[in-house]
Amino acid sequence: MPDIPLAGAALRRVLTVVDQTAELATEVAAALRMRPNDATARTAATSLGVDVLAFEPADFKAVARHLEPLDQLIAAVPPDADGMRWRYLDEAVLFRCEAEVPTLFDEFTARLDISRVIGLTTGYLAGRTDVRARDADGRPIWQLERSISRAQPAYLALSGADVLDVCKLETIDYGPDDQLLRWRQVHSANASALQDDGSVSFARTPKGTRVTICTHQEFALPPLWQAITPALWPVVRRALVEDAYRRSFHITLRTIAARGQGSGAAPVEEPAGAAFSLWDALARLAEPLSPWTLSALRQPARPDLTDSSGFRHFRPERQPR
Fold first, then answer.
1. For a surface tag, which of 17, 90, 186, 255 has the fewest beta carbons within 10 Å of its beta carbon?
2. End-to-end CA separation in angstroms for the chain
3. What is the pLDDT of residues 136-151, one digit of tens each?
4. DSSP secondary structure letter of residue 109
């Protein structure tokens, strides 16, 4: 597929419309089948799904060694126009993004416990954490965490993708000027995650706090996309992946920033739970399509004239040249 100027931007716009429509269609479907006990079921207790006693101190200490070469690889990649870094390792995506939040580091970390930051990622539904070791101040330094999230992007869910279900070993380091959470996948109950390792860090800056996210991920595709993907041009495959990561992690960064600034308790993209209305979802569903909707509304509502035979005639919106 040729690299046509502006084609990348146009493709991203199309993908945004497709994914917004799919996500909102999912919300509509959820609203239609929602029952009073759905909210309780969503927040029901989640097990870790692994034997915590099977992991020894050496396993936690190995997490940093596992991630170190990945950190070096992605740090060598120049950022794109959005400040994001990309590299592919076989079918897995090595990714890094960051943002500076205008909140002093001490205030930011007092409001946001980095050991709980996975719960602020895009599409997070439920999870459980088991702390295995703490520092002298009682803060978690080793833990196992299971997180369950919606499939990303939303059109994969409509194609039959299961939720993303990952259990991982996590280590947390606390310094005077930075904090770092690292994780390494150890299990995926539904085999949705083939690879999910990464880190989140908070670092002091002269003007606030820098949030950095690094991930090394590969997720299982539903059967439809397993069949489609090999036939896609490489540029289209890359655009699909990068668009999904760009939008997902923009939301995650905004959510983390909002929590650290004390201006939000829930992920910013989440609907208002069981209380959100079907009408709101339908209105939002139409929003991405507004350019086409407005074009359709410009058509004349009444004929310009009716001839002697009873045929109605409409004036064309644009006269041919």
1. 90
2. 33
3. 999 999 999 999 998 8
4. H
